Amino acid sequence: MDIKHIRNFSIIAHIDHGKSTLADRMLEVTGTIEKRKMKDQVLDSMELERERGITIKMQPVRMEYTLDNQKYILNLIDTPGHIDFSYEVSRALKAVEGSILLIDATQGVQAQTLTTLQMARDSGLVIIPVLSKVDSPLAMVDEVKMEVALLLDIDPDSILLVSGKTGEGVVALLEEVIKRIPSPHHSNFDVVKTDGAQALVFDFKYDNHRGVIVYVRVVEGEFRKGESLLFAVSEEKFICLEVGTFSPEEEPKNQIGTGEIGYIVTGIKKPGIASVGDTITYLKKPAAALPGYMNPNPVVWASVYPESQDDFPNLKQALGRLRLSDSSFSYEEESSGSLGRGFRCGFLGMLHLEIIAERLNREFDLELIVTMPSITYKVTVRNGKEETIYSPHLFPDDGNVIKVLEPWVNVKIITPSIYTSSLMPFLYDHEGIIKSTDNFGDNRSTIDLEMPLRELMRNFFDDMKSITSGYASISYEIGEYKPADVVRMDIIVANEVMPAFSRVVSRRRVEDEAKSQVEKLHKIIPRQQFAFKIQAKALGRIISSEGVSAFRKDVLMHGSKVVGGGDVSRKKKLLEKQKRGKKRMQSNAKINISHDVFLKMMRSSNDKG
Fold first, then answer.
1. What is the pLDDT of residues 402-415, one digit of tens each?
2. Domain 300-370 belongs to what architecture?
3. Residue 531, exposed/middle/buried by CB under 10 A (0-12, 13-18, 19+)?
4. Which residues pair with 311 in a beta bridge?
5. What's the pLDDT score for residue 48?
6. pTM above 0.85, yes or no
7. Which CATH number among 3.30.360.10, 3.40.50.300, 3.50.50.60, 1.10.3430.10 corresponds to the domain 3-185?
8. Is residue 20 packed enough to be buried (19+ CB in 10 Å), middle (13-18) or exposed (0-12)?
9. In terms of DSSP bridges, do strands 98-104 and 6-12 run parallel, antiparallel, or are they unpaired?
10. 150, 222, 290, 369: which is deepest, by most CB within 10 A?
11. Contact 345, 304 (CB under 8 A)
């Protein structure tokens, strides 16, 4: 296929704006998938993606379409829309020349869309604006068209209208992709043409039998089965076992050449070799590495422990396997006195954390204990030493701390103007510093602010959605470290500190947080054969406490009969014996908290953004 007849593009959209549904219709129109094999969200291959209705892992697909008697290759990369996966989007944008900017006609432009749009513009991509869900009775086509036109400074009539549900406008969109988006070129990579072969790795996955399979955009040259190849950055050599394209399943080809998007089977089964942004080139005639992508930096940390220490080797193997297919989380081994051996893991956000925990449970059948998520603090202690703290239970006692620095985030919120006044007290409560507010389109406002990342994790997304009836959207990027007034809060269950529930909280909110966490745990923790207390401790004292009553067993019942007759002392003897037994149990009390309790405590502060 002549490179002039190849079009590489992605779809940019906010979560739930119809990316995957539109991709389904494109696959139907181009005949890439037979109608009898068609299913909803065909590019969302993970069970979790189907359950939640979101895209987690990006999936390339190659389509063929004929226009004016000329056949074209259309390579689409369907990208995630959730804010946690903005790095996945950045990878997709580097591998293409154009993007469809998909805006929900019932909701208008969202904050995360603005962030991704800016990334696409910075990459020099051609943007095709499209309104989705135009068949909906709630669609505000004219208003949203004007909003997009003002945002992009374009003619409103140049904005395309589609419905992924009915297929309306999909054929016209495919034709505009061919007309507007240029064929593959080098300028996207800031490199000059070379004699060697270069393929940019934008994603990869792991296969038990074939090892690491890298997803590549071929920048220059051709790649065939059996060739000796090299990772330019990691300098790992391998023999190419297979090359091919996505339809959307892997389809082996004799070769993949300049401008194409496809896959290369490496056979490598070691972690840490393949990395996003690396360049694959010939071993005998290696070319220079292409400009790499930024490494995704974890912003949320949590410790993961197996419920049974016998499962520790299985957990280690499972994390290694996931790391082979998801380079955006990191892990390192750690140990805890009460929880045993486990791993300290870094994630892109709260949703990313929950997805990894769910995958470990479903795909590897592991029962896990996941600690409360936290961020990184830089703490100066009394002896003048600066420590980097990843785990809340390792945060120094209040009396031993001189200074604490924490990461802040730059936040953009887009909301209907009627909710702006309601949001202000909420933002103040989350320690937000408003930098500016402005009108955005018809009856909507933007709010730019700074706030601690710690506060963004404190149920911020759910509460904001509640205040704005679900109409507000948010995007953020990590800023600099600033001084923080925070303390460690421990949760004590039956006189034992539970490191998994320790957290670092604002000093001004310590009493509210203590009460909230104790009440939350009190509601979900199972009762035991003996009474015990749930307590929150901070600043050297108990801040909040709740008692959990014991199961009551009627010892005066013997089988189906009540112990009766004779002297009342017989009944008293049984009750005294029960009382002594419960006292013994209480003195040796050790409560095993189940996997479900830990997950419920984690989810209570999770954002569905």
1. 999 999 999 999 99
2. 2-Layer Sandwich (3.30)
3. middle
4. none
5. 55
6. no
7. 3.40.50.300
8. buried
9. parallel
10. 290
11. yes
